[in-house]
Amino acid sequence: MSILTGQEFSYLTRKLKRRPNSVEIDIVGVEWSEHCSYKSSKKYIRLLPMTGPRVIIAAGHDAAALDVGDGYVISVHIESHNHPSAIEPYGGAATGVGGVIRDIISIGTRPIAILDALRFGPIRARARNADTNSKSKWLLKNVVSGIGDYGNCIGVPTVGGEVEFDPSFEDYCLVDVASIGIARKEHIIPSKVDNDDLIILAGGSTGRDGIHGASFASAILDDEENRSAVQIPDPFLEKLLLEATIEAVEHGCIKAMKDLGGGGLSCCLSEAADNLKKQFEIELENVHTKHHDMSPAEIMMSESQERMLYITDRSKLQKLILIFDKYEIRYSIIGKVKDGSEVVIRFRGKIVASLPSNIFAHAPLLDRPIKRPRYLDRVNNSNNKKKKKKNEKNKTYFDLPKDITNINEVLLQMLSNPTIANKRWVYRQYDHEVGLRTIVKPGCGDASVLRLENGKFISVKLDGNSKHCYLDPYKGTLGCISESCRNVICTGAEPIGIVDHLQFASPEDPEVFWTFVQSINAIKDYCNYMNIPVVGGKVSFYNETSNGPIKPSPVIGSIGIIEKESWITDSHLRHGDSIFIIGFTCDEMGGSEYYEYFHNITGGVVPHVNLASDKINAKAMLQLIKNDLVGFVHDCSKGGLGIALAEMAIEGQIGITIDLNCVPNSCSRLDNLVFSESHSRFIFGTSQPVEVIRMLSKLKRLSFAKIGNADKHNENVIFRNTGRRSSAEADAVTVVVDIPLKKLAKTINAIEEIMNKL
Amino acid sequence: MQKNSKQLEKKCKIGIVVFPGSNCDRDVHSVLNNVLKVDADLVWHTSDNILQYDAVVIPGGFSYGDRLRAGIIAAHSPIVGKIKQMAKDGAPILGICNGFQVLVESCLLPGALMMNDSLNFVCRWTTLMVDNNKTPFTNCFSQHETFQIPVAHGQGRYIADKKTLQDLEKNNQVVLRYSDDDPNGSSHLIAAICNPQGNVMGLMPHPERASESILSPGRSTNKAILIFKSLISYLTNSNNILYHRKNKR
């Protein structure tokens, strides 16, 4: 595996004013890999708004911290483990959880929740052949057990997430894990060290597992010979490390700490020394290792799991050692802090590497070329008559689907689409309740709500949409943020921060890099407009296999705060509720599950987030919630109105009758109205329709309407259309959908059905 | 008399044993101390003061990372030796989830807990029915009362040989059963059993997660708290506690 590029080598030589030795080349190579250094993306990430009144530790550290009042802070971080999970799904996913948990611990906070966003190839029928199909199922099964076994064992609940299936992930998978932590403000690690402080490495022994993991994640996955680059998970040790660290923090034994992840000691030491602006003197012989014959470079690059680096005052050393002994954790005192700016690595007394940390920790940034991808012309041209003239020479357009008359049948098929179907099979394998915090549980609301010590609540959700982002990375990314914020709003929360996880193929491809830049622009625009800080993030490039690149897949996590318990919305519709919609539905079918899954069409206009209406709609929704005027609230996204309404009926086990003609829209077709994924829409049930109308009517430029009722005596989901939509339809009342609840409830369990057959 | 029982209530102390890898210890502690306002301590497995407590809870989690077999390493630790002595003396011992596994592995309770029939870990709510309301852990329930409670386990399928199952039924040792939907495939729908004396009980579901209404789906029920209330009422009944204290001496 190549490490430093020729240019980087000469840059390093110039900076050091000497030729780097072979150990230095190895360890700088790891630190300067794309995975650790963000050398392609850093320039762009700096453009994101990262500050705000609640932000105590901004993005760019192991984890960010937000003030939630009353002396408490929450921390948040997101990571992925895509490359390892694609070849060894169980270990890859499990160590992904371990890594993000240690990031949360690293700033002195106790992890209280895990969320996972997963992407796989299709697990049923539509995949090109049965072979990849069974591989996707194998990946799904093992990723879920990997996350479950790790999270369950360490006693941190996995409270939410999402799963998307798309052919661009065949033979591959995206495994994103986010975690939330909590602490008293005074326990946040000060990250200030002094001369003569001790540097301690504790936890797992350093071995040859996972050497070059970071460089491996900085290249395209071409075969499965890289298994040795996957690390081995040990959740039991992580649990001990977690308890010991929190105990040490509470006893004031730790002045600075950092977890060891990608890039191992190289990355950890260089970044810590650079952040603390101090000299580190390290003796590698003291490191407790798995093998007797490890070379200095191997010790520096090992990515063995469950390790933490602590810096402590000599006076606190005895207490710290007592804590390690209590939990039977191995530790080594590997060095000390000095005044200066170098990281000096010795092995058996001899200096093997000596590098200024400001050079070591900062790879030269790259200026990657960008180019708008050609495929966008093809997917944005539909074969409709007007355009055809213009594009006569261009044969790469797609055909609009024929008008569908049997929406009843389509709705059932859409519900059994694994991307839309319920994720019960997944979240029931995760302990989502340990900790006594999970108020809104997975499957019971649009986001997960957790109780905090100060009587407030936070709401968290991860969202992504690779189908939208492929057709239009800018609009697609805007949509992901809007959806994720909408989901936390649906539970009654005000968004206070987002984390972004940007996953793309090779940044060396200008067309791929263009999609990355578009995504960044979308996050910047949304967050600036809404005044929401980006409090954490991660970039993962080189997500491609021999089949080609993945679709651009930014995943956005939203964190919202709920000040009062009474603002948490209901978990289901109630008998007699009137059903309302806020927001406007348009012919925005590009990348919709309806086009992609049902018609197998990749193309069309991607839903656009109008920032002004997005803000107004969210404000209106929160105003209703805070005035206690609504019951159950549901976001309208993947699968559109039809799916959202069916889900509400299934969740509440209650029949509903909807008049589609009441829905504010500009759709040209009935199937578009039912399945369009236009953003900024909320559907809710209320027992006080008159007050709702009175309050919403006062708001300007707001589209809303009462569209139906919930009735426990009705055992069906019924969509009527009382108006005339096209000349082919009669004026009279038409029943568009009429399906028994029981049938819907069975259909939506599709994933369980598929996976239990394995 | 009233005053006397209140004094005893203050004095009754519950020990929550913490093994490396236990992870529901803080949850049980919070319910006992903050919700029920009784005196309960976390007791690290190497400490030698467990005998001073009037009752012991072995909480859920993954003691020793479930290595070898769930609960088996903890079952052979010195503190469990002391707990066995307390059990013999009549002190109430409650094992929840992994705690149940420890009790079975240490032979304080018969049978075994095997991998769920789904072969997957399962975390969800279910309904239990009280089959014996005469134990220190169920005396606040009425007979055959049902209540909602969550499970979260990979190895929760209770099995035992025919003779043992017959004896359990005959002696009223099946305390709680899954009522209609059984999450793991247990024999006789067993969710909790006790020893013949009734003072040692193991249960797979998590009562500490269902002791506050806000934590239940629909935020509506907290009946499972009666398990802890039963224990406290048993301990604060002067006859019981005096009996146990006498034995302790």
In words, what does this structure look like?
The complex is a heterodimer of chains A (758) and B (249). With 758 residues, chain A is α+β, with helices and mostly antiparallel strands. Among the domains of chain A are: 1-32 and 189-364, PurM-like C-terminal domain (Phosphoribosyl-aminoimidazole Synthetase, Chain A, domain 2, Alpha-Beta Complex); 569-758, PurM-like C-terminal domain (Phosphoribosyl-aminoimidazole Synthetase, Chain A, domain 2), CATH 3.90.650. Chain A is 35% helix and 23% strand. Chain A has 27 helices and 28 strands. In chain A, helix 19 (473-490) runs parallel beside helix 20 (510-530). Chain B is of the alpha/beta class and 249 residues long. Chain B has a single domain, classed as Class I glutamine amidotransferase (GATase) domain (Rossmann fold), CATH 3.40.50. Helix content of chain B is 31%, strand content 23%. Chain B is built from eight helices and eleven strands. Chain B has helices at 2-11, 25-35, 72-75, 78-88, 98-105, 162-170, 225-236, 238-248; strands spanning 13-18, 39-44, 55-58, 93-96, 112-114, 122-130, 146-153, 157-159, 174-178, 190-194, 200-203. In chain B, the strands form two sheets. In chain B, strands 2-1-3-4-11-10-9-6-7 form a nine-stranded mixed β-sheet, sandwiched between helices. In chain B, strand 10 and strand 11 (200-203) form a beta hairpin. Chain B is globular, with a radius of gyration of 17 Å. Mean pLDDT of chain B is 92; it is low at 1-5.
Give a brief rundown of this model.
The complex is a heterodimer of chains A (758) and B (249). Chain A is α+β, with helices and mostly antiparallel strands.
